[in-house]
Amino acid sequence: MIAKLSGLLDSTGLDWAIIDVNGVGYLISASTRTLRRLGSNGSAVSVHTEMWVSEDKMALYGFADINERDWFRLLTTVQGVGARVALNILSVLAPDRLTSAIAAQDKTTLCEADGVGPKLAARILNELKDKVATLATSPVAATQVQSTAAQPAVSTAVGDAVSALVNLGYKRIEAFTAVNKAAQSLGGEADVSALIRAGLKELSQ
């Protein structure tokens, strides 16, 4: 099992890179997010990897950080999400934003990725909603996941406030993040109106 590569960036393409490790070129498939972070040809690079072996194919997938690799592993446990679709998702959604999208049950954001339609997005949200807390990579993302799962009363007010902001034209993931920040500041007694006002303030910053 190849878990990590460190060497010089030889070349890159739309969804791949070749890393020269002591004269051996390793071909990895990667998200556009990872490819952007590798830099220019000749740069010293280090990537975490996931190796897949099947009867007719051997493939190596590369990730700029462990969080992205862990999300790749989790996404590919969902029926219908293969390696290519998982990389497409990670190309448009960084780990924290993906955590927020799943906590917010935001199908629209997931559908931004090539190969993800409404049905597959709904399956991803349903199957991963109880697993995202272990991969929350920031305090804000972790709190968003916990608040939806552990505080039903607050979640109802939060949900109503999020819906109101979405109706005003904000993206669901943006509204969800703003309202959750507002809920943390205002406390559990905050009503929908207060959350909407505070959420709008967050969005205007």
UniProtKB/TrEMBL annotation:
Alphabetized UniProt keyword annotations: Cytoplasm, DNA damage, DNA recombination, DNA repair, DNA-binding
Biological function: The RuvA-RuvB-RuvC complex processes Holliday junction (HJ) DNA during genetic recombination and DNA repair, while the RuvA-RuvB complex plays an important role in the rescue of blocked DNA replication forks via replication fork reversal (RFR). RuvA specifically binds to HJ cruciform DNA, conferring on it an open structure. The RuvB hexamer acts as an ATP-dependent pump, pulling dsDNA into and through the RuvAB complex. HJ branch migration allows RuvC to scan DNA until it finds its consensus sequence, where it cleaves and resolves the cruciform DNA.
Organism in which the protein naturally occurs: Niveispirillum cyanobacteriorum
Protein name: Holliday junction branch migration complex subunit RuvA
Cellular localisation: Cytoplasm
Assigned protein family: Belongs to the RuvA family.
Region (Domain III): 150-205
Lineage, broadest ranks: Bacteria, Pseudomonadati, Pseudomonadota, Alphaproteobacteria, Rhodospirillales
Region (Domain I) location: 1-64
